[in-house]
Amino acid sequence: MLRSMYSGISGMKNFQVKLDVIGNNIANVNTYGFKKGRTTFKDLVSQQIAGASAPTAGRGGVNAKQVGLGSQLSTIDTIHTQGSLQTTGRPLDLGISGDGFFVLSDGTNDFVSRAGNFYLDKSGNLVNADGLFVKGLEPNANKDGVNTSSVTNINIPTTAKSFSIGNDGMVTYIDSTSSTPKVAGQILLAKFANTGGLEKVGGNLYRETTNSGASIKTGPNTYNATVVVPPNSAGAGTLEAGTLEMSNVDLSEEFTEMIVAQRGFQANTRIITTSDEILQELVNLKR
Predict the structure, then answer these.
(1) What is the per-residue pLDDT across 27-36, written as a single tens digit (0 to 9) for each?
(2) Domain that holds residue 38
């Protein structure tokens, strides 16, 4: 059988995956904190027809003769570039300007996210849209600062008259019994050596992997102080209250890539059609 037919099949499979990634990017163009994906290819093994030969006294060297056998999927990357911050004016909407992820927990498993649309439950706990707790440093006994050694859920008392969240993640509130501001805690951000190594688990959430860097936890209830840090420290970004980070998907770029992938797919189908016509001619030689 013709090698070109199998090369065309491999190309069609790869462009199908590329279109799947592009379709997911476009579907999430308005998803808060979404990071777009990118597909890259690499060539398959090449079949050697003749090897290279070195030059001699009477004749120059000859290059190898090789025929490629198609392409294969190389990587599907997550591009963690900064998305634009959209002003909402809602005090519980938080955008990260710079590096870092919010740390969220269901009590057993920990996740990270760039989506900062948070809410308060009936107990005053700061949670995301799915009810996961936002982790931060707990306030000290006097509630005029934070305990830098203890990570807990952020809780704003239900008796608070007002509250605010600073660029450094410090959550302060005014209680109904006093006009003195008190600290409810400090929101923390997680930094990873390799953000591209994080695993998407849906719901605007990521999970650490063995290739994303040091774990956010050093024990069952102990967080890694070199990974989970306050905003605007150790290279982490700052928090912008009243804003939300939008998706970093560029529609014009995605439409262009979609056209390129479509034409590439069509070209590979043409390779298969042409190879089939040649095989048909070979079958008809006997007639």
Answers:
(1) 999 999 999 9
(2) 3-46+65-80+249-286
